[in-house]
Design brief:
CATH superfamily: Ribonucleoside hydrolase-like
CATH class: Alpha Beta
CATH architecture: Alpha-Beta Complex
Strand content: 5-15%
Strand order of the largest sheet: 5-3-2-6-7-8
Number of domains: 1
Distance between the termini: 46 Å
Structural class: alpha/beta
Radius of gyration: 17 Å
Oligomer: single chain
């Protein structure tokens, strides 16, 4: 097990920040998805993230939203890390990023102190850029600490234009950092002033299942066949966290496997051309 340097974490939280009352719970983003930030662990505890992370990127790519993903902090269980877990998670995230056309320079390994610092600084900048008509949606698929760190360092006013998406109620990811590592919870993140977007637990529809339920991926081309291979590594057929990405795109809070199959089997939307 690799223990992350606690001194680096302390540097981010040395200055206290004022508390801002969070706005009322909003609906899914309207008028376009806008900028998206992602977070996930997978380097400790959550083997399902090896599948969910790759599926999340496949979903966003299918909608042509590669350029809208401005930050991804993966391996974000910053307190300690299992080397094999970290290797598998990194292969899933970077492999999917490269295959599905994302700018992987925006992807940051939170288990590496330099990657953590760069990722949090980048996310803080994206939060500070947020305002009316330019909101940021953060998909929280791991512990809350890295998102809390970035929000804590950001402008209190800008925080109110950030949506923080989580699924379930009192889940392991929502509470683990605080209960087990003296860190922060989802409620602590919301108390910094971002918008609470809390959808139902996705395990009911997209949780553990027989891998045969995903066999169709192997018929959708080499990239999706590779995606199937990441589900094989994770073994459980569990892509529950990816339900949040589908929600961000569609507003659907309880996507079924059959709905996801229809979505993934449809023609991929071309990524928007780069601005000139």
């Amino acid at each position: 097990m690799i223990t992350w340097c606690a001194a680096a974490l302390a540097a981010f939280v040395a200055v206290s920040a004022p508390t801002v009352t969070a706005p009322a719970t909003p609906t899914a983003p309207g008028g376009g998805v806008g900028r998206i930030a992602l977070s996930a662990d997978g380097n400790q505890h959550d083997e399902d993230d090896w599948a969910s992370s790759a599926m999340t990127l496949a979903i966003l790519a299918r909608a042509g939203l590669q350029d809208d993903v401005v930050n991804y902090i993966y391996d974000n269980h910053i307190w300690d890390s299992d080397p094999n877990h970290r290797k598998n998670m990194t292969e899933s995230v970077m492999g999917a990023g490269e295959r599905f056309g994302f700018d992987t320079s925006r992807f940051h390994d939170g288990a590496d102190p330099a990657g953590l610092a760069a990722g949090v600084a980048s996310l803080t900048a994206e939060i500070n850029a947020s305002g009316p008509g330019n909101e940021l949606t953060i998909v929280l698929a791991g512990p809350m600490e890295t998102t809390w760190m970035a929000l804590h360092a950001a402008s209190p006013q800008a925080r109110t234009h950030v949506r923080c998406v989580s699924h379930g109620d009192g889940s392991f990811n929502q509470t683990h950092g605080k209960t087990d590592h003296d860190g922060h919870s989802y409620d602590d993140v919301i108390e910094l002033g971002c918008q609470r977007v809390q959808i139902p637990d996705q395990n009911g529809n997209l949780g553990p299942t027989d891998l045969s339920d995903w066999d169709y991926l192997k018929e959708l081309g080499p990239d999706m066949e590779w995606l199937y291979s990441r589900l094989e590594v994770a073994e459980k057929g569990d892509v529950s966290d990816a339900g949040m990405a589908y929600f961000v795109i569609t507003g659907e809070e309880r996507v079924s496997r059959s709905e996801l199959r229809t979505f993934l089997s449809s023609p991929r939307v071309p990524a928007a051309p780069a601005a000139v």
